[in-house]
Structure formats: structure tokens, C-alpha cells
Amino acid sequence: MWSLFLPDARRRRDRALALAGVLRSALLVQQIARHGTPPGELLQVCIQSILALESQDSLRALGDIDSLRQPLALLCPLLQRGPGNAQEAELLRYVMALTTLGKRLLKSASTTQRVQEGIEQAQRQAAHFADPTHRSIVAGLAQTYTETIGTLRPRIIVSGESRFLSDPDDAARIRTLLLSGIRAAVLWRQAGGHLTGTILERRGICREAEALLAAQPRHGTF
Fold first, then answer.
1. How far apart are CA 183 and CA 107, in angstroms?
2. pTM of the prediction?
3. What is the pLDDT of residues 131-171, one digit of tens each?
4. Labelling 25: which of 6, 16, 60, 171 has CA 20 to 30 A away?
5. Hey, CA dihedral for 55, 58, 59, 62, is it positive or negative?
6. Taking the alpha carbons of 90, 164, 182, 152 in that order, is the dihedral positive or negative?
7. Angle between helix 168-190 and helix 8-35 axes, rounded to 10 deg
């Protein structure tokens, strides 16, 4: 499930991309929990990353640079100076929990199998509805998260407004986005990521993030 094999030359780049993917999910979870605002196209990108079970390219598995632009820009400040306010501290808490759960998922063959079965069901639904953000697909992925990742520890405590957290559609989006964060965390682990190593190589990760942003202009007219 979510297999990816990388040559050494790409591993740091892919760790930076995958960490940005984890942070992207955290940002979107925070947005919905606090404001109830659907993440639009980014939700579709995140769901497609979940459905990409066999992608052999990390960027393609995660989406594209535009969808990772905000988390790539935030990655360096968080790694170099730490969280500067309560909102960033909350994001870092989500990222830490997601990377830990990604590791625990990889160690549980039975849970991994159940996640894969849930994703394969979502793939069939996506082929039927031709829209990965269809309510039934989001609800199914949310249920997969609850029945698999939701049984692991640590449980992720999402902070926000109760009116959004208790709304069934917003709650399903949050769980689906958490699953996409787990997908990115698994990718990060497969690229050699671990928490101690990230602290030691934070300057290198920052250089990779800056290079990715510089190499991919947001728009161009020719």
C-alpha cells in the first residue's frame, strides 16, 4: 500500500515534499475546525493523494507544487524557530501526531490491510461518481479513518468551534484530511524520515523547500 522506492539523491527532496504534505493536511483541518470553510480544490488534491496507492513519484502522489505552496513556505519557520503563536503550535501538534501515527500504521499489517481495503472501495466509488469529493466518498474515507487510524494512539484531538466539529459533513472532511496527512506521513517515513533526523537536517530540508518554491513559479504568461 502506498508503495514508493526512491534513490538516495531524491530522499531529502521527498522528505521535504512529504512533510509539506503532512502540514497541508494540518492546515486544512485547522481551517475547517475553526472556520468551517470547505478547502475547495485542495480537498480534491488530498483525496487524490489517498487514492494514489501505487504512485512511484512523490510529487505526483501528493499533488503539485501549487497545492503545497503554503505549507512549503511555512515549513522553514516552523523548523528553524519553532511555533511563533498558538495557531502554529496547534499545527505542529497535528504534524507530530500524524507522523507518529504513520509510523504505527506501518508497523501494523492488519490495520494497513484494512486501510487499503477502504481506499480500494473509495477508488471504485470515485470511478462511479467521477468526483473524488463526492459526499459518499468523503464519508467512506472518514469511516475508514475512524475504524483504522482512529484505533491507534495517540488519538488526534482537533480544536475548533463546536458547531463545525459536530457538523457531520465537516467532521467527515476533517477525518478524510487526517487520512491524507497519514498518507503523506507514510511517504515521509518511506523516504527515510524520522523526527530526530528532521531536527538534525532542518537546514537541508529548508533549502529543499526553498528550492522547490523557487523552481515552480505559481503562474506564467508567455
1. 14
2. 0.92
3. 999 999 999 999 999 999 999 999 999 999 999 999 999 99
4. 6
5. positive
6. positive
7. 170
The closest alpha carbon to 31, from 3, 70, 4, belongs to: 70
- What proportions of the chain, in percent to the nearest 5, are helix, strand and coil? 75, 0, 25
Q: What letter would DSSP give residue 155?
A: P
Give the HSE-up count for residue 4: Cα atoms under 13 Å, Cβ half-sphere: 29
Per residue in 171-204, pLDDT (tens digit) is: 999 999 999 999 999 999 999 999 888 988 999 9
Residue 217 to residues 15, 78, 87, 134, 197, Cα–Cα distance (Å): 21, 23, 28, 31, 29
What secondary structure does DSSP assign to 48-64, as a single string? HHHH-TT-S-HHHHH--
